[in-house]
Amino acid sequence: MIQAIISDLDGTILPKGGKISSETLAAFQKTGQKGIQRIIATGRNLYSALQALPPGFPIDYLIFSSGAGILKWPDRQMLFTRHLSRQTAQEIACYLWDYNINFTIQQAIPDNHHFYYTSIYPLHEDYKRRLAAYKPFGIPICSPDGIQSEATQFVMILDASQIHLLEKIRKDLAGYSVVRSTSPIDAKAVWIEIFAPGINKGTACLRLLKQLDIPPEDCAGLGNDYNDVDFLDLCGTAFLVGNAPFRLKPYYKSVASDRNNGFAEFIDRVLIS
């Protein structure tokens, strides 16, 4: 019997440039009426997630920053956070400095919309847009020593000519959590995020489910991208929306796209099963 549902946010229930539909809202409400725990697991930082979700949105828990934080939604109680020390952040920055990519270093939760950033190489268009969107919160640095606080994660944006760096970074930084996702801005570029060891959406979901005494096999999950795989693979039932990358589709059940109320279809199928 399904006791919890876990859904991604952007590209799953929130289409790019759109808004959460009334059908999706109704599906969340119906799920709550059945006594099922409703969890959103997003890559957004807390500040950004709170901008996207209105205060009364009908969920029970918010996993944000790809698992670096867990929030009890109704009373905004912080249940869990994890960060990188200042020294560790500086060491990772030293490693990345030799590559032809820029990166941001998000400060510790709950202020991880504040960040340090480099601009030492030609700027990827996604990177430009990200800096512009968070301009009031950015601090430029010219060396790793410019990092003066703990960090939640590093964010890098790769184009097609740089994608080979993903596996090298994963290998060289095997002691940390290296998470891949597709750009929420242009849906083409590859984003790489580096977190403290063991941080991803899946481990955060497991942590929360243990607190709720809900076995993972009694959960249903819905996602749209590579950074959702960690929680989809622990769920007893897992779906992708129709706009997910084609490479992922053979491994999961499918529902309609984010723009065609895939979440509402997901809930209907989960509640019937």
- In total, the number of domains comes to 2
Q: Mind summarizing the main beta sheet?
A: 8 strands, mixed
Fraction in beta strands = 15-25%
CATH classification, class level of the largest domain:
Alpha Beta
**What is the overall pLDDT average?**
94
Provide the spatial order of strands within the biggest beta sheet.
5-4-3-2-1-12-13-14
CATH superfamily of the largest domain: HAD superfamily/HAD-like
CATH architecture of the largest domain: 3-Layer(aba) Sandwich
The arrangement of helices and strands along the chain is EHEHEEEHEEHEEHEEHEHEEH
> Please, how many helices?
8
- Topology, number of strands: 14
CATH topology of the largest domain: Rossmann fold
Note the gap between the termini.
8 Å
Explain what you see.
This protein is α/β, with parallel strands linked by helices and 273 residues long. The chain has two domains: 4-81 and 199-272, Rossmann fold (3-Layer(aba) Sandwich); 86-195, 2-Layer Sandwich (Hypothetical Protein, Haloacid Dehalogenase-like Hydrolase, Chain: A, domain 2). Helices cover 27% and strands 23% of the residues. The chain has helices spanning 22-33, 46-52, 86-96, 125-133, 165-172, 201-212, 229-232, 262-272; strands spanning 4-7, 37-41, 61-64, 69-72, 77-81, 103-107, 115-117, 138-140, 151-158, 177-182, 190-195, 219-223, 237-240, 253-254. Helix 7 links the parallel strand 12 (219-223) and strand 13. Helix 1 (22-33) packs parallel to helix 8. It is globular, with a radius of gyration of 18 Å. The termini are close together. The mean pLDDT is 94.
